[in-house]
Specification:
- This protein is an all-alpha fold and 225 residues long.
- It has one domain: MetI-like (MetI-like fold, Orthogonal Bundle).
- It is built from 11 helices and no strands.
- Helix 5 packs antiparallel against helix 9.
- The protein is globular, with a radius of gyration of 20 Å.
Length: 225
């Protein structure tokens, strides 16, 4: 039971983190350098999951992907089953819930890059894509790794959103945090303690390894010693 829930949680965290890496980098770049007057509106939307209760976010995502919604009907017509209370539904909710934890560190890292480097690249005739690929992304790599780490760790510990969207289906939507909740509800504190310690050790090991990679990336980019 523990292995099943842990495997599902890791699968969810990896999937969400890589989706946010693909979505978050261009979004963070736009937030860092865009001069649109309405940029604050996008920033507010991205940051909303930080202050919004998980149950509220989970409820509205459930309504948005439910079988009565256009998205839910479209998905069911293609996949042959509803999107809500499935692993795919958990991915949708988790991506939205962890979005600010991925985007904000990336945007901060991109915005901190010396604009003289970007101006010099433009004067030399480099395209925006080449400037991004050769200057912005390498110098902003520590922030990108931080966003990846935070989104991964945040997904590991999700409870309210995954419970609202996925319920508690063993092997399909029961993550490790929901399993701990079930064990506490059943007054099986010994099992809950073992599961919680396993998650604690796993989270610490993963975060230590990923932050070590982030530090090494900073050494490679800035020449730190």
């Amino acid at each position: 039971m523990i292995l099943q829930a842990l495997t599902l949680t890791l699968r969810l965290a990896v999937t969400v983190s890589f989706i946010l890496l693909i979505v978050g980098v261009p979004l963070a770049y736009w937030l860092a350098y865009s001069r649109k007057r309405w940029k604050f509106f996008v920033e507010a939307l991205v940051s909303l999951p930080i202050v919004l209760p998980p149950t509220v976010l989970g409820f509205y995502v459930l309504v948005a992907i439910g079988p009565l919604s256009p998205v839910g009907r479209w998905y069911q017509a293609i996949a042959g089953h509803p999107l809500a209370f499935t692993f795919e539904g958990l991915v949708v909710g988790s991506v939205l819930y962890s979005l600010p934890f991925a985007v904000q560190p990336m945007a901060t890292s991109f915005a901190s890059i010396d604009h003289k480097l970007l101006d010099a690249s433009a004067l030399l005739g480099a395209s925006r894509w080449r400037t991004f690929r050769r200057i912005v992304l390498p110098l902003g790599l520590p922030g990108v790794l931080t966003g990846f780490v935070l989104s991964f760790a945040h997904t590991l510990g999700e409870f309210g959103v995954v419970l609202m969207i996925g319920g508690n289906i063993p092997g399909a939507t029961r993550t490790i945090s929901i399993l701990i909740f079930d064990q506490v509800e059943a007054l099986d504190y010994a099992a809950a303690n073992c599961t919680a310690l396993l998650l604690l050790a796993l989270c610490f090991a993963i975060l230590a390894a990923l932050y070590g990679l982030r530090k090494r990336a900073a050494w490679d980019v800035w020449g730190w010693k």
